[in-house]
Amino acid sequence: MYRQQEFDFGIPLPPWQPKLRDRVFFALRLEPNDYSRFSALQRQICGLNEITGSLLLEGRFHVSLQHAGDYKRLRSKIVFAARRSGRLVTVPAFEVTFRYAGSFPGPPVTRGKLPSRPFVLLADNGPVCELSRLLGAGMKANGLKSSDHFVPHMTLAYDEKFIVRQLIDPISFVAREFILIHSLRGLTVYRNLDRWPLIATS
Q1: Is 149 part of any domain?
Q2: Which single residue of 5, 76, 83, 154 has CA 20 to 30 Å from 145?
Q3: How far apart are CA 169 and CA 26, in angstroms?
């Protein structure tokens, strides 16, 4: 994500351009009617914790499920394998509830740069963890790497501060589908490649 330095003498910095520009991942995304509730919470708890770094736009709020890889150039065979993986998963719709907020350590700090730590909402374990597990199994069956370590969360901001985990008033949304996303890293652009509805419950 593009970040302005404290002293730039009016000269704009170029956008961050990673070597591996194309990221592919599975995620849950909020529906538009959920945006206002989560945006209000973002403003409230970031203000209380004096978070002054980069706040995510509401349209980018999501819960990552599995990371399918970072690539110099996204190849069709990767998208094909990820789509096959997604088609293997069938689970009921479920509620995701967040009860805590706090910081993750973030990537190692390189010389001359400030730390950039994700400030996140932490979700309860439950169906979201099972969905991640099933996707991981499907990815392995289709030749993709997956992770067995999963901490369900939603990033609200990036900041140099480290905020210890704290209890919040619970906030929830109903996951009705999961999505395969192509992220253009450095441009903060998400493109939905495919989506799969979760089974409606009566």
Answers
A1: yes
A2: 154
A3: 27
Residue 43 lies in a domain: yes
Write out the two tokens for 106. Answer: 């973030």
User: Alpha-carbon distance 100 to 121, whole Å?
Assistant: 6
Provide the residue range defining the domain that includes 73. Answer: 22-108+115-197
How many domains is the chain built from? 1
Query: β-pairing, 94-103 with 166-175?
Result: antiparallel
Segment 120-164, tens digit of pLDDT: 999 999 999 999 999 999 999 999 999 999 999 999 999 999 999
Residue 44 tokens, joined: 């409230």
Q: Give the pTM.
A: 0.85
Flag whether 6 is in a domain.
Answer: no
Give the pair of three-digit tokens for residue 113. Answer: 């740069």
**Which residues fall within 8 angstroms of residue 9, CB to CB, at 6 or more apart?**
none
